[in-house]
Every structure is written in structure tokens, then in C-alpha cells.
Amino acid sequence: MKKMLHEEEITRIINEIFTRGVGTFIDPNDVFRNKIIAKARGEYHEDIIVKFGVDPTRPDIHLGHAVVLRKLRQMQDLGCKVVFLIGDYTAQIGDPTGKSKVRPEVEQSAVEANMKTYLDQVGKILSSDKTVFSWIRNSDWFTTITDLDLPDDYKVNMKIDAPGLPSKEISIPPNSFVGKAIVFEETRMQKSIGAKSIAVVTMRSLLWGLKHITLAQLIERDMFQQRVKDGESLFMHEMLYPVFQGIDSDILAQVYGTCDLEVGGTDQTFNMLMGRKIMEVNKRIPQAVLSCELLVGLDGKEKMSKSLDNYVGIIDEPKDMFGKLMSIPDVTMSTYLELCTFTGMDDVGEITKKLALGKVHPRDVKMDLAQQIVEIYHGREAGILARESFVNTFQKKEMPSDMPSISVASGTLLVDVLIAQKLIASKTEFRRLIDEGAIREDGELKITDPFFAVTGDMVLKIGKHRFVKLQIKK
User: Fold this and answer.
1) Which residue of 320, 340, 424, 474 lies most exposed, with the fewest beta carbons within 10 A?
2) Measured on CA atoms in the order 47, 67, 285, 5, is the torsion positive or negative?
3) How deeply is 17 buried, as exposed, middle or buried, from its count of CB atoms within 10 A (0-12, 13-18, 19+)?
4) Could you read off the pLDDT of 7-37 as tens digits, one per residue?
5) Is 346 inside any structural domain?
6) What CATH number does residue 285 fall under?
7) pLDDT by residue (tens digit) across 121-172?
8) Sequence-distant (≥ 6) Cβ neighbours of residue 156 within 8 angstroms
9) Are residues 439 and 460 in contact, defined by beta-carbon separation less than 8 angstroms?
10) Bridge partner list, 62
């Protein structure tokens, strides 16, 4: 049972939801704001549906994703139901947001694996209680009966009831239209959620939506205009992606009875507004839109992204998480405090002033920041231990006591050892680390020879915070 909050606490949470780290909040006439306030007070008893969509093109959730997820958790605490929309169908098309090139398609098998990872990890932030959480795939409505291709030995039975005769089951060829229709009906997630009818996007319904959207509206996206200006290819399936995302919102309103708010990053604002457009066209109450500021990555330049390898995963080991966070540029600390921690905004402002005036050391603020983030995802004790390990290793110059130990045959090339142990991904990465002086013997002596062979016991420091002990086989 949801704990009732005091009016003062409700006001604080509401104000933080709509201001902290928020780029845009579109809610004409305060429809959503008033509804969530009434829900928090116990005055509104219908579901409030908040949509968060993800294309599972890559596994794992990082701190950039967590900015939105933590805001969603606040809404759950006020009684909203978050619908985690897995874009397994549209992931195979690809949203070109922020991309100057065509985004590659993703095989369904990879989508399925990544989807499982997302669902496993989201529980570290969101409540999985069915009263405030649900998830669904958008292939549930974008896939039609004729899209199914069933194995020839797939068993499909149909129950026959005739007046005056006993009921019986007959076997139906799986790839006949009737066979596919039975399987389609039985496998829709909408049915398990309790939808009164199964929604399907047909060519007719797609064209109905498109007749209300102009080319000028679609081409408004800054990155589309830039692609055209630069002479880059711009394909129709990419331009239709915002429309598909908008259709998702309209379908959710049918399945769940409403779709009150869509939340995403500022790079998704255009797509989320398309949801309002599609819902208005279909004479439904349009969703409000809330876009969160994007978290800059460890490089301090680009948004946090696995593809740019500038990310901190929420399931990273505590020591790795702490070490990565200690590498962020000083100028990004205030942003990380705002978007990634529970530090009050008044305190964030005070810390920012002290940093500017030189009244606090950036290293100390960064250590407090890193410890707090580790504690959020791994617990208080893990945060304390990660901080102690970092101090001992990098300030007191002590080697970590729990580094992995690898047995190596004398004369083995170091690059082969590191690849075999999955400490690096490729020879190309090894060459880059060598060129950057990022592989050091005993944490100090740079290894510069790409053909370096292991001939004796040693401790290696790889990058800024990885250590491994190599021992020659006797």
C-alpha cells in the first residue's frame, strides 16, 4: 500500500519533478500537473500512465538513462504507473536522433537479448510493483497476422463447439491464415495486460495519421535539416520514425485507457510532441511531454553513450564506478550533482559557488559525488569501501589487494594475454593504450613496445583504474 505523503513533501517532489534537470515541460492548462497532485493527495483514483520508450539497440543502462529513470521513480512514489515501452519493432528501423549517418538495423535476436538486460536492470531504480509498473513491446501492434512465420511442426489447435454435439479440438496448419490468427491472438501482450480489444496498426490507420502530418512538420527536426544541408542521405523510414513513436502513445492510450505523459531526453522532444499530434488527430486527450537534460559523458564533451565509451553503467563494479567518476572534468561536477544524486538543489548551488571561489578542492567534491552515486546503486558500505580503495590506490600509491591474478606462459605477448582475459577488446585498443602510455608496469613504468612479451612476474595498471597481476607458470 502506497504511503500517504504530507502536503509539504508532495509540493517538494512535484516541484523537483518538473524543474530539476528538465529541458522542456509541455502541459497546456496544467492538465497533467493537476492530475498528479490529486493522485498524490489520494483524490484521484484512476491510473495515471507515464510512458518511457527505449529502443534496446544496446544492452545495459548507464547513468544517462538513470536521469530519466530516477525521475520516473519519483512519479511512481506519487502513484503514477510507468509503462516501460520496449521498442523492439522500431529498434530494427532505428531512430536517427543525433546521428549524421543512417543508423544500422538491429537483428531481432540482439533486440531480444538487450531487452532482457534492460528489464533486469531497470529494477535497480524503478519499482516493479504491478500497480505502478508495466511493460510492453511495440511489436505487439506493429506486427500483423501475416507477418508471422511459424515452424511447420508448430502445434495449433482450434476448439469446435456445435449445438447438440460434444466440443472437440482440431489441428490447424500453423502457417494457414487461421493458424496464424489463433497464434496472433494468443500471444498478444495486450491480452495479458487486460486490454478490452487488441490494437493493431494497419496500413489504413498509418495513412490516416500521415494525412494529418505535413512534410514541413517532419523536416523541422534540426538533424534532418543538417543532413539535407550536408548532402547526406535521408531515407523515408527515418523520417517516419517520429510518426511510429507517436503512434505508440496513441496505442498505449487504447491499451491502458490513457497515456498522460511521455518522458525522455531533450533529443526526444520532437518525437514526443509527435505523440501529442497523433493523439489529437484521433480525438484523444494528448499526452504531456517532459524532456530531461542529457548527461554529458566522462569526456565532458558528448552525451553519455556506450558507443562513445564515455559511460558509467549502473551495474559497474563499485570500484570501477568510483574510478570512472573521479575522471570526469571538474566543470561537469555541478551537472552530475544535479542529474545523478539526491543532493538538494540549494546545496548544489552552494557547492558550485564554493568551487568557483576556490573554497573547496574539486577532488574532495568529486570524491563525495562518486561515493554518493556508488551508494545509490550498490549501498552505503560499497560506497565507503570504493572510496577507501581509491584513496589507498591512487593517493597513497598502494596496489589494490583484490586485483585479479593471471598465470601466463613465459614469452607470451602481452597483447594476447589481455585479449584472452577480455581486459581489452582488440589489438587496435591495445595499440591505442600503448600510444597513450596507459599500460604501466607496477603502476609506474610505461610499456611502449606493442610486441612486449611477458617474461617475469609483474603488476600491470591498465588505463586509470584497472590492475592485474601476471605470474609466470612454473
Assistant:
1) 474
2) positive
3) buried
4) 888 899 999 999 999 999 999 999 999 999 9
5) yes
6) 3.40.50.620
7) 888 899 989 999 998 989 899 988 888 888 888 888 888 887 877 888 889 8
8) 150, 171, 172, 173, 174, 179, 182, 183
9) yes
10) 313
Sheet strands side by side (includes 22-26): 22-26, 288-292, 261-265, 49-54, 81-86, 133-137
292 CB neighbour count, 10 Å cutoff = 24
| Cell numbers at 228, concatenated | 539535407
* CA 92, chain centre distance (Å): 17
Phi-psi region of 397 (alpha: psi -120 to 50; beta: other; left: phi over 0): left
| Contact criterion met (CB below 8 Å) for 101 and 152 | no
Same domain, 409 and 391: no
pLDDT digits (tens, 9 = 90+) for 68-108: 999 999 999 999 999 989 888 876 665 555 443 333 444 55
Is 313 inside any structural domain?
no
* 372 residue type, one letter: Q
Q: Is this prediction's pTM over 0.90?
A: no
> CA-CA distances (angstroms) from residue 103 to 97, 107, 270?
9, 13, 18
Q: What range defines the domain where residue 412 resides?
A: 405-472
* CATH label of the domain that carries residue 359: 1.10.240.10
**Are 132 and 260 in the same domain?**
yes
Residue 435 has pLDDT above 80, yes or no: yes
Across the range 200-223, mean pLDDT stands at: 83
Residue 170, SS3?
Answer: strand
Cell of 248: 505508440
